[in-house]
Amino acid sequence: MRETVPHIQALKSHSWELFIIPNSQEQNEWQNDKRIKIIDSGKVGPASKRDLGARKASGSILVFLDDDSYPESNILEIASKYFKDPNIIALGGPGITPITDDFWQKVSSAVFLSNFTGGSPERYLPIGKAREIDDWPSVNLMVRKDIFLSVGGFDCQYWPGEDTKLCLKLKRTGKKLVYVPEMIVWHHRRAGIAMHLRQIGAYGLHRGFFARHYPETSFRLKYFAPSIFAITVFLTMFIKWLPTETQVIFELLWVMYGIGLLIGFMQILRHEPFIISLMATVFYTPLTHFYYGIQFLRGLFKTELVSKLR
C-alpha cells in the first residue's frame, strides 16, 4: 500500500477518494490527505471488502484495484472518455508486470503473455483496440456505481472468481463492458513456482466450478484445454498397455503440445528476454497447465464451493 497510495495521489484531472479496507483496525498513515479513508472489515473476502467500499463511496464510478497494484496517472482521464457513452457500464484494462519485479516474478508473468501458454494475454498487455468483453479481473476494473448497486455488487464469497460473478451480472443488464488497452494498472506477480501454482490452482478450481454453474462466460474450450493436457499426461504413463492406434493418438497430442509451446515461446519472446521466455515456456507452463487442469476438474465436479481466505 505504501507503493500504491502515492500513485493514486498522482492521478490527474479528476477528483477521487480512496478506501483501504484491511481486516482489522490500522493507523491511517495518510491522515493528512482527507481523501484517503481506512475501514476495517473483519476477516472477510475481497468481494465483501469491495462491496463495503462501494457502499461508502460518494463518486459515480467505482475503481477496483488490488493492494499489490498501482495505476498509471492518466487512468481516470482515459476512462472518463469511455464513460461518456451511457451504454458502457464497466471498463477493464491490462495489469502489466512492473519492471521492478524480480526474475521469477517475470517468469510467472511471462506464462500469460501468449494465447498458447496463458490463454488471455490482453489481460497482461495492452493488445489491440477497445472492444466488448464479458469477464475481467478486478485488479483493473471500473464500474458505474448505480449499476453496481442495482445488480447487488459482488455479493459472493468466491475468491478468486468474485469478478467473474460480478461481470456475469453486469452482462445480463444488456449494457456494455469494454476492454480499454491504454487503461493501465501495474500489477506485481507471485515470486517462485510454489506461490505461482497456488494462485493458478485457485483460478482453476473456481473456473471449473463456474463452468458448471455459470456456463455463460466460463464454459469455453480454452478453460478446458489444461484439463485435456493433465489427462493426457496421466494416460501417457500407461501408454505401453494401450492399443497401437491409441498410442499414435497420444504421440500426436504431444507433438501438437510441443508445437503450441514453441509458438508460445516465440510470442513471449516479443516481450521478454530469452532466458525468461525459455523458463516460462519449458518449466512454468507445463506445470501451470497440469495443476490448473487438475484443479479445474475438481471444481467442475463440485456441487458447492467455499473459497479459502489466505
Give the gist of this structure.
The chain has about 300 residues and is of the alpha/beta class. About 45% of the residues lie in helices and about 10% in strands.
What would you call the structural class? alpha/beta
- Distance between the ends: 18 Å
- How many E strands? 10
Please give the CATH architecture of the largest domain. Answer: Alpha-Beta Complex
Please indicate the count of domains: 2
CATH structural class of the largest domain: Alpha Beta
Beta-strand proportion: 5-15%
On the 0-100 scale, what is the average pLDDT? 95
Provide the spatial order of strands within the biggest beta sheet: 3-8-5-9-7
Explain what you see.
The protein has 310 residues and is α/β, with parallel strands linked by helices. 46% of the residues lie in helices and 11% in strands. The protein contains eleven helices and ten strands. It has helices at residues 4-9, 46-56, 75-82, 103-110, 145-150, 162-171, 193-213, 215-218, 221-236, 244-268, 274-300; strands spanning 18-20, 36-38, 61-65, 69-71, 88-92, 95-96, 131-132, 140-144, 176-179, 185-187. The strands form three sheets. A five-stranded mixed beta sheet has the order 3-8-5-9-7.
For the structure shown, list the relevant keywords.
310 residues, alpha/beta, Spore Coat Polysaccharide Biosynthesis Protein SpsA, Chain A, 2 domains, five-stranded mixed β-sheet, three-stranded mixed β-sheet, 11 helices
